[in-house]
Fold:
Amino acid sequence: MSGEQMTPEAAYEQRLQAYVGSVLVPGRPGQDPVNVPMIRHWVEAMGDVNPVYLSAEAARATGRDGVVAPASMMQAWTMRGYAATTAPHDPTPFDELVALLAEGGYTSVVATDSEFEFHRELVPGDEISTEEVVESISPEKRTGLGAGRFVTTVRTYRDASGTAVATQKWRTLRFRPAAKKALRPRPAVNQDNEFWFAAAKERRLVVQRCRSCETLRHPPGPCCPHCQSFDWDTVTASGRGTVYSYVVAHHPPHPAFEYPLLIAVVELAEGTRLITNLVGVAPDDVAIGMPVRLDWLEADPELTLPVFRPVTDRP
Ligand SMILES: [Zn+2]
Structure:
């Protein structure tokens, strides 16, 4: 590579893409040939009452030579059973690809798509084998389950003469399970206080003000406790305040919070008080009357909240 170093990401991509076109599972025969007892169990379990699967007479009345297997059983004829899949064996190319995906963090799997194309109906006595070839491995995609890669393979089902009886395009998502971060409990937002949370979302700490007597109030409410007026607007707080009171919460722990958790009543320079969290300070260093200033916590994409930290610089 004439002095150029390949990034680890590019090297990984190359190893992954090397599987495209390769045989993951070589032509592997099923345990039993197509047979009536298995068809009987299948149609009973599925509640499929089409007579062409069990009655030779009914099948002949449709122009067939005799009974046929339901198309939906195709995969069943090539399944090896629980014992075979759990028996010790040398790693197959399939095992190796799964290990390589796990190396990239894609440890979870979910089937996303199965597209069958049937070329002829199966009849009792058919011996079916299947071969699986990798068609594509997508770049990493963001999905609701987590970042992952779509692995598409083509399975070809063949009879004893090697003639293809069906092909199946099989797509799975191999993904990195998204670490679910616990969210802070949702505040009880209602028509009387939604303006306050909407302003917080824009990083503005507002205080409700009576338009009749100009008294400030918090928490928000529809009516002025001083003059009973329902007419109000807001002022934007300076962000300066002092610790009026505080507690250090240890229990019960909630996964959205870090402990010890400092919960304080901060008195704003404007005169109203609010319940908030103190940040950037150890519990032992908090003192009543301590000057604090406003900061913002982006708790999650839906929730921005005011928090307060000690004033460190002397004015
Ligand atoms: Zn008032």
Observations:
- The radius of gyration is 34 Å.
